[in-house]
Amino acid sequence: MGLLPLPKSLPLMALLWAILFTLMTSSTTPFASGDDDDGKLSAYEVLATYDFPRGLLPVGVAGYELNRETGEFSAYLNGTCKYRIESYTLEYKSTITGVISKGRLRKLKGVRVYVVLLWLNIVEVSRDGDDLDFSVGIASASFPVDNFEESPQCGCGFDCDKLKDGLVSSS
């Protein structure tokens, strides 16, 4: 009794199984932004695991991806987000990318700040004790970590209640 002939599609099926196995065991893990029933961390909780406050991201992160081996990440908003805090206007693109490690966000893309008459890209954020240092490449500024404990809201920052009451202009 001889061996049965193998189907010609066997190599294709083996390739598909190899791709599926690779995808299932990949170190890049997509996560939703909210507290899920299945125990996945929110983007804000992930920031805390790297020693950053939640207020680095505005309210409404729709999801994110994080490669835990390299620190490469992408965070997703439901569109561009802009708001004003004191004399600064901040803008987040719908996708923010970079590399995260303990106390350091580098190669940051998708976040910029309006200072004087220029839009400047924030390229790095690092934690130095109780301060956060924000770098735009040619210059940096430090702010207390406590200023970032709460996440701002798109459009109104931290003045949303005042806007509802008509106490703050929306410019």
From TrEMBL:
<dbReference type="Pfam" id="PF04398">
    <property type="entry name" value="DUF538"/>
</dbReference>
<feature type="signal peptide">
    <location>
        <begin position="1"/>
        <end position="34"/>
    </location>
</feature>
<dbReference type="InterPro" id="IPR007493">
    <property type="entry name" value="DUF538"/>
</dbReference>
<keyword id="KW-0732">Signal</keyword>
<dbReference type="InterPro" id="IPR036758">
    <property type="entry name" value="At5g01610-like"/>
</dbReference>
<protein>
    <recommendedName>
        <fullName>DUF538 domain-containing protein</fullName>
    </recommendedName>
</protein>
